[in-house]
Amino acid sequence: MAAGPAGCFSYQAASSYNRAGAAEDTLQFMAQDPLGPRYAVWFPGKNASETLSNAALITWSVSGTHALLTFPGWRGNPAIIIAPLPVPPAYPPYALPIQFITASSSQSNYPPINVIDGDL
Q1: Which of 11, 53, 80, 92 has the fewest CB neighbours in a 10 Å radius?
Q2: What sign has the CA pseudo-torsion 36, 41, 47, 53?
Q3: 54, 46 Cβ separation under 8 angstroms
Q4: What is the pLDDT of residue 14?
């Protein structure tokens, strides 16, 4: 298996039976950007060196609306997956009444009300 674009695999061996009559290990990909788009490609029946060789042929690109994954598929033929990326929802501005702006501490020259004055 190969995964990306950046991150690492985390393996946890079962310490006891964690399913009815069986123990199940955990293998997961921990993405460097947990909210960003990512991929995983399995190469069933391949040994470690074949998987490494196939992983080197993976290409991954992300545009504003789509992700493109190219990898060695069946019998080495290139496989291409184009996936649409979700559009983040547009949230309306949140109007906060001034009387609700407080702080547990502040400086006299910088009162809590300054958080909504638009001046960074």
Answers
A1: 92
A2: negative
A3: yes
A4: 85
